[in-house]
UniProtKB/TrEMBL annotation:
The active site is at H418. Keywords: Carbohydrate metabolism, Cellulose degradation, Glycosidase, Hydrolase, Membrane, Polysaccharide degradation, Transmembrane, Transmembrane helix. The chain crosses the membrane at residues 12-32. The gene is LOC107015111. Pfam families: Glyco_hydro_9. Gene3D superfamilies: 1.50.10.10. It comes from Solanum pennellii (Tomato). Residues 39-491 form the Glycoside hydrolase family domain. Its EC number is 3.2.1.4. InterPro entries: 6-hairpin_glycosidase_sf, 6hp_glycosidase-like_sf, Glyco_hydro_9, Glyco_hydro_9_His_AS. It catalyses: Endohydrolysis of (1->4)-beta-D-glucosidic linkages in cellulose, lichenin and cereal beta-D-glucans. It is an enzyme of class 3 (hydrolase). The lineage of its organism: Eukaryota, Viridiplantae, Streptophyta, Embryophyta, Tracheophyta. This is Endoglucanase. Belongs to the glycosyl hydrolase 9 (cellulase E) family.
């Protein structure tokens, strides 16, 4: 998440002016005769990124060597082991709500596109397991789910390496008396989706995951409530639940249906899609770490496309999502930059192009020859795939700035990303401890980051395709795990279908 903004340097302002002139001259991206990016290279790097986000005791096969062990006492304040998991972005807090969504999307990426991943499949599964091993720890006590480790305010007041952290590593939990249905249900979804991934290669682990997912879902559903009400002063404004917890309950049940094939989960989804109708219909186009509405309908569409009697309201909802996103649709509600990138207001816009494009690509593969009617426009499978490719290509460099927004991909990419570990000299170069404020000169420096965080996808350009490569410009320059997770699936598909 974001540390204080600070003022942009003169060089950054000049860069912004140059970018503005460039965009005015180019207006829109013309992709005619432009070769597709190297999707295979981007896939490898998008998965490597997760190794740079690891918390805990790093394994012997760790490939990102500028990172070292960190946060080895997490959970000690509560007498539990909470070592491991991921840092969500450029800070050193473990926020379990977005971490769980990241895990679910990594698992869905592998479940859908594993046959296209080649040698990267093993690394993708390791990325999932790094998270699920952690969530098994976080849910080990019945009716207790740990929701966060670290004091965000204290952490954001420092600019220091994760290996040096001296800010409070407080562990926060939701319980039967202080529920948090959204974070608990999202963790259940993560465990259930991962159980699908490991079912053939490690059936014992898969069974452990799905059994825990069932327990955590039952807890989330029985003790309903938002963690905002009990942990709000710690989780907000960073990862408040703005969309309520009902979508997470449906999302988890849908993944348990996929993982177990038990009718009870179909009954739950079918009944509650009606019970939660007002919540669902107000957010049919939303999908990300906070809102699962569009994802629920796309996921369930796989079950109902061959059974018309169960199609309502899932297919109409999924079709509404498609029509609200595609730029040529007369009912489109999403803005686009002049260069063609999907843009929604808020910090870290790039989560929208990756997450929504993943859904469109997945729905396209489910629908096959089916045609969606958006006003007077017929939308086909090919149109959805073409649109998803346009978003991926923009991220990888086919855009007005002619730059990749993935670090280490292509010849021009962000060099000053808002990321503590990447922006400070590694322990290899600076073995002495660096205190809370010792990193501030590096944060304010205009120098390039000393460590390339390969595969990190930053927040991206603004509504006019402008991008300022500046560390204090967190909204544009900070990477997050939940941007990369759905991109893994997209890149795997386009690697196999260049």
């Amino acid at each position: 998440m974001i540390i204080g903004s600070g003022k942009l340097s003169l060089n950054c302002l000049v860069l912004k002016i140059i970018a503005a002139v460039f965009v005015c001259l180019t207006s829109t991206v013309v992709a005619i005769n432009v070769p597709n990016p190297n999707y295979a290279d981007a896939l490898t790097k998008s998965i490597l990124f997760f190794e740079g986000q690891r918390s805990g005791k790093l394994p012997p096969n760790q490939r990102v060597t500028w990172r070292k062990d960190s946060a080895l006492l997490d959970g000690a304040d509560k007498g539990v082991d909470l070592v491991g998991g991921y840092y969500d972005a450029g800070d050193n807090v473990k926020f379990h709500f977005p971490m769980a969504f990241t895990t679910t999307m990594l698992a869905w990426s592998v479940e859908q596109f594993k046959n296209s991943m080649g040698p990267d499949l093993q690394h993708a599964m390791e990325a999932i397991r790094w998270s699920t091993d952690y969530f098994l720890k976080a849910t080990n006590i019945p009716n207790v789910v740990y929701a966060q480790v670290g004091n965000a305010e204290g952490d954001h007041n420092c600019w220091e390496r994760p290996e040096d952290m001296d800010t409070p590593r407080t562990a926060f939990a939701v319980t039967a008396q202080a529920p948090g249905s959204e974070v608990s249900a999202e963790i259940a979804a993560a465990l259930a989706s991962a159980s699908v991934v490991f079912k053939r290669t490690d059936p014992a682990y898969s069974k452990l995951l799905v059994n825990r997912a069932v327990q955590v879902f039952e807890f989330a559903d029985k003790y309903r409530g938002s963690y905002n009400d009990h942990l709000g002063s710690w989780v907000c404004p960073f990862y408040c639940d703005y969309n309520g917890y009902k979508d997470e309950l449906l999302w988890a049940a849908a993944w348990l249906l996929k993982a177990t094939r038990k009718p009870m989960y179909w009954i739950y989804v079918k009944q509650n899609i009606i019970n939660f109708k007002s919540d669902m219909e107000s957010s049919l186009s939303e999908f990300g770490w906070d809102a699962k509405h569009a994802g629920i309908n796309v996921l369930i569409s796989k079950f109902v496309l061959d059974n018309p009697s169960n199609a309502n309201p899932f297919l109409p909802y999924a079709d509404t999502f498609v029509c609200s996103v595609l730029p040529e649709s007369p009912t489109n509600t999403v803005r686009y930059t002049p260069g063609g990138l999907m843009y929604k207001s808020g910090i870290c816009n790039m989560q929208n192009p990756t997450a929504l494009s993943f859904l469109l690509l997945t729905y396209a593969r489910y629908m096959k020859s089916r045609v969606i009617r958006c006003g007077n426009i017929d939308v086909t499978q090919k149109m959805l795939i073409r649109f998803a490719r346009s978003q991926v290509n923009y991220i990888l460099g086919i855009n007005p700035m002619n730059m990749s927004y993935m670090v280490g991909f292509g010849t021009k990419f962000p060099q000053r990303i808002h990321h503590r570990g990447a922006s400070l000299p590694s322990i290899n170069q600076h073995p002495e401890k660096m205190g809370c404020k010792e990193g501030t000169p590096y944060f304010l420096s205009e120098n390039r980051n000393p460590n390339l965080h390969i595969g990190a996808v930053v927040g991206g350009p603004d509504i006019k395709d402008y991008f300022v490569d500046s560390r204090p410009n967190a909204a544009q320059s900070e990477p997050t795990t939940y941007v990369n997770a759905p991109l893994v699936g997209l890149l795997a598909y386009f690697k196999a279908h260049p």
